[in-house]
Amino acid sequence: MKNKKLIYGIIIAIIIIIACICLFGGKKSVGTISFATEKTNRGNISNFITATGTIEPVTEVEVGTQVSGIIDKIYVDYNSIVKKGELIAEMDKVTLQSELQSAKASYDGAKADFDYQKKLYDRNTRLHDKQLISETDYESSQYNYELAKSQFESSRAALAKAQRNLSYATITSPIDGIVTSKSVEEGQTVASGFETPTLFTIAADLTKMRVIADVDEADIANVKEGAKVNFTVDAYPDDIFEGTVQQVRLGSTNSSSSSSSSSSSGSSSTVVTYEVVITADNSEMKLKPRLTANATIYTLNKDNVLRVPTKALRFTPNKNIVKGYNIKDVNAAHKVWTLDGKTLTAHAVQIGTTDGTNTEILNGMDENTPVVTEIKINQTEEMAKKDDSERSPFQMGPPDRNKKKNGATGNDSTNETNRNVDNNQRAK
After folding, report:
1. Cα–Cα–Cα angle for 389, 391, 392, nearest 5°?
2. Rounded Cα distance, 98 and 101, in Å
């Protein structure tokens, strides 16, 4: 009988313990919820790619010479402003003038012989028609005439070449502009071979510059003529220069890039880039030829469009979390939510372009309308205290508890362990 009473007592005690756990231990504070909202607004939506290029004048001419010789006189220097046809250098003309005189003498002799042979041929032709000379004499005069004519035309071409070579000794500017490069000095000998030596480089107008940017093959499809460009140069890091894409060149450039790993074995890959020509104003003359430009090319740029944060389109209320709120949903591909008191209302919208952060709204929403972007669960003070009181005595505390405080005589982690031991002893 005593054993039965003991068993019944144990069962009743277990039931009471379970009931206490359910009533007091099982109920936890949920905390309060709030909603983060942002207003729809008008602004810009843009996407862009980056590229590196070199600044060049829009029109740049390399001035050279087609004859060999010694530079006799130079009349310009770096940054000299020149006009079209202006004399900028002269070569030594002694040799060229001698060649011209020799060609002129050969020409005069060939012309005299040609005139004589032509008269003789015309006379023999008339006699031949009257059958007063033999066929052999007539053919001989015809041959001498054709030979003299050929030599005369050859000497005339040689004379024209000598005259042109002499004119090449006088070097003039082909355009109006400014001298940006000078590669020779007075007294220097230049040799003209298969490639014409460059003596000067003249830029037409430095108030108009261009950037030749190298764009990666993965981005080139999005670059269009007329696209807006912003770029910077290291010389003026605080200035932002504006430009426009003028041309997307079809020719590509292949370059190899190598990468090494920890195993000291390297691999190489081919990088394909395309040249994009960007025009820019240089009225302040800050941009210099051959500066490196870091360009931002806008592949998408819309101004003054109605937009919402993209995360507002991804927000969907969870019914288990927003208990107590009335949800009015709609069946739509794209929607945003508004909050009015305890009511969450969905609005179907038609979207346009996006830059990832913001998305264009074509219709379905007005400007300055607060839309829900996310839900926040705020932990109450009671919940925080309860969580702290329910921490296991053997559970590791926050990281700052293991740090030694300035001026402390003991270690906090040691003190915490001692407190846990005391709690265990009291529990026993």
Report:
1. 130
2. 5
Residue 386 · residue 29 · CB < 8 Å: yes
Q: Indicate the pLDDT class of residue 380, thresholds 50, 70 and 90.
A: low
**Helices 94-129, 135-168: inter-axial angle, 10-degree rounding:** 160
Looking up tokens 């590669």, which residue turns up?
Answer: 183
Question: What's the predicted TM-score (pTM) here?
Answer: 0.62
pLDDT at 93 over 60: yes
Q: Report the run of H or E that residue 9 belongs to, with start and end.
A: helix 2-20
279 in Cβ contact with 58 (< 8 Å): yes
Which is more confident, 150 or 192?
150
CA–CA distance, 311 with 402 (Å, rounded to integer): 39
Q: How far apart (Å, rounded) are the C-alpha atoms in residues 245 and 126? A: 74
Distance between alpha carbon 313 and the CA centroid of its chain, in Å? 31
Q: Given the structure tokens 């790619």, which residue do they identify?
A: 49
Please report which confidence band the pLDDT of residue 416 belongs to, taking 50, 70 and 90 as the band edges: very low
CA atoms of 197 and 119, how far apart (whole Å): 48
Annotate 61-90 with three-state secondary structure: EEEECCCCEEEEEECCCCCCEECCCCEEEE
Report the SS3 class of residue 402. helix
Tokens for 373, please give them. Answer: 């972007």
Residue 2's pLDDT is 57
